[in-house]
Amino acid sequence: MTTLYYAPGACSLAPHIVLEWIGAPYEAVKVAFGSKELLAVNPAGAVPTLRESDGWLLTQAGAILDYLAQKHPEAGLSGGNSLRDKAEAHRWSSFFTSDMHAAFWPIFSPHRYTTDADAAAKQAVVTAGHALVRKQLGLLDAHMTGRDWVLGDRSVIDTYAFPMLRWAIKLLPGGLDGYPNVQALHDRIAVDPAVQKVLAIETGA
Ligand SMILES: N[C@@H](CCC(=O)N[C@@H](CS)C(=O)NCC(=O)O)C(=O)O
Question: Whose Cα sits closest to atom 16 in ligand 1?
Fold first, then answer.
């Protein structure tokens, strides 16, 4: 059986939703960042990590999402099969990994971005993170004009956006105000019954 190692509300929420959408049996194991259990499957101590029943391990959210979409073509979550469809899926996966996710790191872990122990210095890093996140939200909002989903149809890429949009709502002063297309994308994903089910599992609600 496929096993997903996840932390509640983290970027691992994306493959968790995808596994639910696919509907094949899987196991979801809740882990703490950097825990012994997680380090045993991912030396980075990070989620998501996917394990197949033969022991094969896969890390990196973008790679896991693409793997699941390709493994289960019947679920129709890859974003399409043409050369350009694949390039767009790769483009947006890279955007969420390298631009959007990375923009949150100074907010989550300001101590990694300054050697100054002063609280004001850390707050300055957080504030710089807010500006970075806003830049990415602006780019995504413009792309989402007139679209329901990031790619043509609903795909794994929408699930990748979802945890980050939840972080923005929670952590960014003003949340998604000023990004109506992004807010609409968030709301479209949030009402999905499988998404509700996964959120209830992850938060223990
Ligand atoms: N590049 C990795 C980053 C994974 C990552 O940083 N995940 C976060 C949760 S969203 C994490 O596990 N953080 C733990 C840490 O930074 O120590 C990916 O895209 O999967």
Answer: 46
123 lines ligand 1 (CB under 6 A): no
User: From the alpha carbon of 7, which atom of ligand 1 is closest?
Assistant: 9
- Which class is domain 2-77+194-203? alpha beta
Q: How would you class 169 by CB atoms within 10 Å of its CB: exposed for 0-12, middle for 13-18, buried for 19 or more? A: middle
Per-10-residue mean pLDDT for the chain, 205 residues long?
97 98 97 96 97 98 98 98 97 98 97 93 96 98 98 97 98 97 98 97 83
Which part of the chain has CATH 1.20.1050.10? 83-192
Tell which CATH architecture fits domain 83-192: Up-down Bundle (1.20)
Specify the DSSP element, H or E, that contains 68.
helix 61-71
- The answer to whether the CB of 14 is under 6 A from ligand 1 is no
